[in-house]
Amino acid sequence: MKSLIFGFALAATVLAACNGNDASKETIKKDSNTPGLATDQGKVPETAQINSPNTAVSMKEMVDQYLQMKNALANDNGKDAATAGNAFVASMGKMEKTSMTPEKVKIWNDLSDDAKEMAGHIGMNGAKLDHQREHFDMLSKDMYDMVKAFGGGQVLYKDFCPMYNNNKGAIWLSETKEIKNPYMGKKQPTCGAVKEEIKM
């Protein structure tokens, strides 16, 4: 009789332990969908991985200098655009890649050489507004992708001018909703429209 009671007690203990394990597995499963929490494999979801402070500072510098280029071109000021272009190139050299995920390193490597070349052309051609604007068009595409990947440190607006480049159009990033067209300058300063608000 004692062995029978002992058998029931042992079975009840094992059953309770199994149910307890199921409950803990369920908790882990639910938590694995929560950003920032470790999954049952001990990995942090990609969405929880953020930029390092140094990356954020470098991106903020680059965005500020890009906006200086944009505003200078909108005012037909090639000299100030050149100064900002050279500062942009210097800021790119400060970007810290050691704390980036492999995916972000790839994005940076894919975009940075081209962006540096475009900003360098703007920096070397302070007396050639048309040439600066051609390179600003290409730089703006890279900057849009960079801001999407790494953030810009502030709210930005993606604007579009339909008339630039023989009506092929071109984008640029702005810190305000007010249109200040860097491609048309003072001739048509308000040509264009806001196409996207970027909150990062």
Report on this structure.
With 200 residues, this protein is mainly alpha-helical. The protein has one domain: Four Helix Bundle (Hemerythrin (Met), subunit A) (Up-down Bundle), CATH 1.20.120. It has helices at residues 2-31, 53-74, 78-92, 102-124, 129-150, 164-167; strands at residues 155-161, 170-174, 193-199. The chain has a 3-stranded antiparallel beta sheet. Helix 4 (102-124) runs antiparallel to helix 5 (129-150).
Secondary structure topology:
Elements: H1 2-31, H2 53-74, H3 78-92, H4 102-124, H5 129-150, E1 155-161, H6 164-167, E2 170-174, E3 193-199
Antiparallel strand pairs: 1-2, 1-3
Helix pairs in contact: 2-3, 2-5, 3-4, 4-5
Tally of domains: 1
What percent of residues are in strands?
5-15%
Query: Can you list the strand order of the major beta sheet?
Result: 2-1-3
Q: Radius of gyration, Cα only, in angstroms?
A: 27 Å
| CATH fold category name | Four Helix Bundle (Hemerythrin (Met), subunit A)
CATH class type: Mainly Alpha
The run of helices and strands is HHHHHEHEE
Average pLDDT score: 80
**Helicity, as a percent range:** 55-70%
**SSE-based structural type:** mainly alpha
Give the terminus-to-terminus CA distance.
71 Å
| Secondary structure: number of strands | 3
Instruction: Note the total helix count.
Output: 6
Shape: globular
Quickly give the CATH architecture.
Up-down Bundle
Biggest beta sheet summary: 3 strands, antiparallel
Task: Detail the poorly predicted runs.
Answer: 1-50
